[in-house]
Amino acid sequence: MSAQLAESLVQSVDWLAIAPPTIAAAVALVVLVADLFLPEPRKAVLGWVSVAGLAAAALMLLPLLGGDRSTFCLTGGTHACSYTADRFTLVIQFLVLGGALLAALLSVTNLDDDRRRVPPGEFWFLLLSSAAGAALLPASRDLATLVVALEVASLPAFALVGIRHGDKRSSEAALKFFLSSVTATAVSLMGISFVYGATGTLYLTQVAQRLAHVDGQLHTLAQTGVVLTLVGFAFKTAAVPFHFWVPDTYVGAPLPVAAYLSVVGKAVGFSGLILVTVVAFPSYADVWGPALAVLAALTMTVGNVGALRQRATRAYSAVRLLAWSSVGQAGYLLVPIAAAGHAEDPQKAIGSTVAYALMYAAVNLGAFGVAALVGRTRSANRVSDYRGLYATNPLTALLLAFFLLCLAGLPPGVIGLFAKVTVFSAAVDAGLGWLAVVMAVNVVIALFYYLQWTALLFRAPEGEPARHRVPAPLTAAIALTGVLGVALSGAPQLVLRFAATGLF
């Protein structure tokens, strides 16, 4: 009898399902150990091993396209699993691993230029570890695994922000990022404990079933738990009022790390937010739906106004402008999630967020790639440093103009326009007309600073124009994002088809 019970508790592991995050984690350990034995002149190979590892992890998504796979499941009649590789998981993992791969290409060049202050072994270990946690999160289907994945993605990111030795600005940015994130995580953990106390389970599907029939005496406890749980994920998405860490962190971090946080960090926050709201807390949509709608309106407004105000500062930093822009973009990403709380078809609304995230990832990484190029000769990386870029690097200037027009939602950046229309439609279909109006106003506000930066690229340069040599890894990163953006602008409907999540 005991032998049969023990056998029933043994769970077989689906190694193919967990391959993408596992490969990233394994390569991280390989890089860390290899760093101990490689002589200093040969440590550049660690970067290419990391790039190859991320590419291999991304390629392992292909065998998973055949159907949903789950592992680490409860035994017995109850079907609840901790890890599920469904359509939603694969799309977010593609975004995360693709974004990490492009950030790694940017980092190869950055480390060559800044090797004295950035230890390569530690850098690549931290980047791969964070990417492994980010790839694990969308597959998590219980609250414990979700929080572990969130912290595995976040803790290495704190160290990456402050990894430059002797850089006070980098250390200050890392400290701000760390303290605010730890506080948000503590609040979120308290919320999860309340949810567990009210439902007696951590599995998302079981939480959804039991919250709908929670005892009246536990209703307040459950409602408080739902609200507190959302706080941690709202922080990761840089939603207002949890956005204050973003500008200083992006400016203080090495530029590839800022690019990584702007895309992969957001993917972590938004995928976690989708899982806890739509999958775990659908019965409390009347709580989180209106709350996220208000957060979306505040976030896009504060982000775009903050970006607009950067013009008044003496050091009109391109990276700080992109940081405030990313806050505004986070507001647009929140709109369909809020709409899912009011819509008859939450699946379609969530697909809009995922589609927008894919567009944003490609063009925002491209913009950071051009910023990395200009930063090689202009360390301050002010917006004024981009004046006359077309005269010295015509193709790079055209690509940056394309990326900025995509973010603004203007032709020829058709994919940006398509993504914004999709998000706008999700708000209208859910009856959130006021939020659609706020979004339309913010799109107009954003046009001003995006178009101003774009126009600057084609003005006559002041003084002797700087010549920018483009290293091969940086060329590859910019070219990949450019090709992806142009291809998707030619066939924008492919994004929605690819982003069909299949969460239900």
From TrEMBL:
Domain NADH:quinone oxidoreductase/Mrp antiporter transmembrane: 140-445
Membrane association type: Multi-pass membrane protein
Single Gene Ontology MF annotation: NADH dehydrogenase (quinone) (non-electrogenic) activity
Primary location recorded for the protein, binned into one broad class: membrane
Keywords from the named record: Cell membrane, Membrane, NAD, Quinone, Translocase, Transmembrane, Transmembrane helix, Transport
Localization: Cell membrane; Endomembrane system; Membrane
One GO process term, biological-process aspect: ATP synthesis coupled electron transport
Regions crossing the membrane: 15-38, 45-65, 90-111, 123-140, 146-165, 177-204, 224-246, 258-281, 287-309, 321-341, 353-374, 395-419, 431-451, 472-495
Domain of life of the source: Bacteria
Record GO cellular component, one term: endomembrane system
EC number: 7.1.1.-
Reactions listed under catalytic activity: a quinone + NADH + 5 H(+)(in) = a quinol + NAD(+) + 4 H(+)(out)
Subunit structure: NDH-1 is composed of 14 different subunits. Subunits NuoA, H, J, K, L, M, N constitute the membrane sector of the complex.
Family: Belongs to the complex I subunit 2 family.
Protein task: NDH-1 shuttles electrons from NADH, via FMN and iron-sulfur (Fe-S) centers, to quinones in the respiratory chain. The immediate electron acceptor for the enzyme in this species is believed to be a menaquinone. Couples the redox reaction to proton translocation (for every two electrons transferred, four hydrogen ions are translocated across the cytoplasmic membrane), and thus conserves the redox energy in a proton gradient.
The name this protein goes by in its record: NADH-quinone oxidoreductase subunit N
Organism per entry: Streptomyces lucensis JCM 4490
Gene from which this protein is expressed: nuoN
